[in-house]
Amino acid sequence: MGATPWEFKSPLWYFFLKELFGKALIESDSIMKRLTICLLLSLLVSSELQAQDAVKPTLRTWKDSTGQFSIEATFVRVTSDQVVLQGIDKKEISIPLAKLSVADRQYVKTRLTPKPSGKKYISPALTAKVTWTTGIIKSGRFPKKQVTENSVYLDVPYRKQERLLCVPTCASMTLSYFKDPHVPRELKVLSRKQKYIPQKPFKDYTITLYKDLRVAMEQIGYSWKYINYKNTDEGFVAGITAIKENLQNKNPVLVDVAFESSHTFLIIGYDEAKELVYIRDSNIAKPGLRILSYQQLKSIWNGKGYGLDARPTLFTSRKPRT
Predict the structure, then answer these.
(1) How many domains does the chain have?
(2) Exposed, middle or buried, 112 (CB in 10 Å: 0-12/13-18/19+)?
């Protein structure tokens, strides 16, 4: 058998072309056929390069809300309430999301919104209106305790709340998880800047604001951060991003919600792939587990039940080491 008219330096190329076009074609002496092969190969390489270019971040001009300052940079990520950009010099800078122009905030939102791939089935349960029974898991297969790059589930102990004591109870569950137990009644009394005496009759069944709970936490050595995110799409993106970051550090997060009434959830985990949040709800029966989609949480996460048009959030953290 004679030498192949087109001499390939690598046998891998020969094998690839033979599988793609057939042995008879690539060993043919026809110039037209060989030119056809070259054309097809160039189209394949061009398509691959275009696909790679499509996923690269776009260099664009970013402006602040006043329009006076701008920078040429590419989007990298969102961390808490900061947008991280990479300048032309390849150095990363952080800019508060709230200080960007409306157009830039919308661009960040589109970058964080997953693009649909084909016809994706979405369960009606994940978009349904939230009621007191929505997402309650009473038995069966519970999520595994884990902290991975894209999912977290913290095994926070459950405690049933007394009337209107959801905030102190969420804090009490968190402290039990931190191996520093305090009962909800104690935290409620401390939020009033009073001394807790277990034997004294307890009658203070009133709502507890986060700013008051922080007073209680400071008295026992904790410094928890309270943030009101805007009740907007951008506010939700900034808030849920910060919540996931706190959970990655194994710290639960309290959020106020309003659906059939005002209430407080303790978020103990999330699943980024399924866009779910895991909630320890002190106002339902043991094990107190509720699972909601991001969209469902977005629809109820607000303080409107007590006149606050925002997304109240309390980030827990462990006691500082001394």
Answers:
(1) 3
(2) middle
